[in-house]
Structure formats: structure tokens, C-alpha cells
Amino acid sequence: MDAVLQPFLSFFKSKPGKFIIAGGLLIVSSEIVYELYLWARKPAKPRQKSCEVFFINRRKLAQPLPSPQEFTYEHINRIISYINRAEKSICLAMYIFTMREISEAVIRAKKERSVVVRVVTCESMVGNEGSHLRDLIAEDIKVQYKYKSEYLMHHKFCLIDTDWYCANCLLEYHTEQYGEPTKNMQHTMFDKAVMSDRAGLLQRFGSSCARCNPSNRPKQAVPRRKKSHDPLPKHGVLIAGSSNWTFPGLTTHWDTVTISSLPELIDPFAAEFQRMWYELNDPLKEHATREPLYKTRRGMEGAHS
Predict the structure, then answer these.
(1) Where on the tree of life does the source sit, at the highest rank (predicted)?
(2) Which residue has the higher pLDDT, 13 or 270?
(3) Residue 94 φ/ψ, nearest 5 degrees
């Protein structure tokens, strides 16, 4: 074996052999340096903003210029893009909801990805002929409101993939923020429940959640989306503002939409949604909302009551 290798060893010890080795090392080194240079020049992936504010009658200029349809639907498509990324839950509190495209995205989330959808609305909007709440009800999505309430449920916000408080965490949060309710400070049913029906709150919301017990956080064994999918922030997002989910409300009005993943913004809205979920707990009836004279009938009931 030594006799076979000897000519090669002798060659590489010679000047031509050393030159070839040095040249090879130079080529390999230059390739490594070039790859490192390309890696260093690669633009960093833009960090997702934790809070953005959009004004409805203002558009962002983009290149290439968007089509008229894309230009008009910029804010609508943005909301749909977030709903399309929902994996766990959608909690929607909306006064007026007439956007068919958003309704279809919510229904897809429930049917195709088993997303839990909860909706709180106002009784005054139940009989709205253009409302797509009835389409949600037809898909067995739970929609709640307060029957014959003297106050409007006028909120316009949506929580996507945010944590759900158990009763203990909900009580702790409200006590931290507003203090312990007293006999003279029972403004709402929830305040009264904090005072005298904590068992009912525990029955409604349970005693453990992902907030106080991280092991309760659901784990997905099989990814539902492709690797290229842009996931939502870990603790979800809040979409809130002055806009109803209507075509003019999301295209032309002087309105705003804020989208945020900041816990400081998400937590108050999450707790407030559950307070409404406890109080505005009259489920809608699909057959009633589809009656042509529903609003007239309700007006007559009010007149006779």
C-alpha cells in the first residue's frame, strides 16, 4: 500500500503539488467567504408590529398599484386575512355586521378548522335585513344578546386566538381592575354574581384555564397549515375600532381600526367580552330572525308590553 501511495505523496510534496493544494484551499475559502457575504446582506425578516392603526378612508400606497377592487377592499381583506389565520377561537362583539365576505370567512373558520366562534350583538340589530348574523346562526354558531335591553350593545371588536378566562382568573382580573364589588356598587349582573353567585360563574366558565394552568393550553399534534403560513402572535390579536363591519364602515367612513397583539390591550377586551357573554345571554333563534315581519312583530310586542 505504501508503495502505491508513495508517488502521490511525493507529488503533493513537490512545488506543483503544493500549488494545487493551495489553489484548492483558496477556492474553497473564497466560496465560504462569498456565502457568508450573501448571508450578511440578506435583508432581515421584518418584525410583525405589535400594534397598528388604520384609518378607513385612507389607503396605503403600494407598488405595483393595486386594482380598484383591491384598493377598495384593503381594510376588509385585512380583517379577512386575520380571520383566515384563526386556529383556536373568534370572539366577536359587533353592533352591525353586514359584510358577506367576512361572514363567509368566519363560517369557514368554524367548519374547516373547528375554530370556536362566539358572537355578542345588540337586540336592535337582530332583525336587520342586511345582517349576516343569521348566516352564522344557520351554521350553529352561538350568537347572544340581551332580550328587550334598554341599552345598546354598541361595541365593535374581535378577539382572535386569545385565551379564555376561567371564573377564578376572570374574578381576579376584575377585582384588580375595578375593586371588590360592594353592596352599593352592584351596577350589573356580573357585579352581583361576583358578590353572591360565584358558584354560578364557576359553573359557566370553569375553574382552570391556560392563563392559570399552562398545561390546559391545547397542543396541535399535526400542523393545520403549510410552513409558509404566517401564524398569529402567540397570544392572539385584537381588532377594535369605531367601524361596524359594513361596506361603508370599512371603506369610506371616518372610522378607525386598530389591530394589536399587546397583552395590555387584549386582556381588558377579553375580560369584557366574557362579562358580556355572562350578561347578554339570550341566544338568538334562527326561525325568528328569518321571519320577514320580525322587526314589526318585535315593535308590536314592545307596544303591548
Answers:
(1) Eukaryota
(2) 270
(3) -140, 130
Residue with cell 332583525: 127
Q: Helix, strand or coil for residue 96?
A: coil
- For residue 11, is it within any domain? no
Residue 240 has pLDDT above 80, yes or no: yes
Residue 241 pairs in a beta bridge with 257
For residue 189, what pLDDT is reported? 84
Helix (H) or strand (E) holding 154: none
Domains in the chain, number: 2
State the residue range of the domain holding 116. 45-163+235-297
Using DSSP bridges, classify how beta strands 89-94 and 116-120 pair: parallel, antiparallel or unpaired.
Answer: parallel
Instruction: Assess contact for 172 and 211: CB atoms under 8 A.
Output: no
Q: Residues 153, 122: contact at Cβ < 8 Å? A: yes
pTM for this entry: 0.76
Alpha-carbon distance of 48 to 68, in angstroms, equals 27
Name which of 33-37, 60-64, 91-95, 238-242 the model is least confident about: 33-37
Contact of 89 with 115, CB cutoff 8 Å: yes
Mean pLDDT, rounded, for 210-220: 73
Residue 277 in any domain: the answer is: yes
Give the ranges where 117-228 is alpha helix by DSSP (H).
133-138, 167-178, 189-196, 198-205
Cβ pair 125, 96 in contact under 8 A: yes
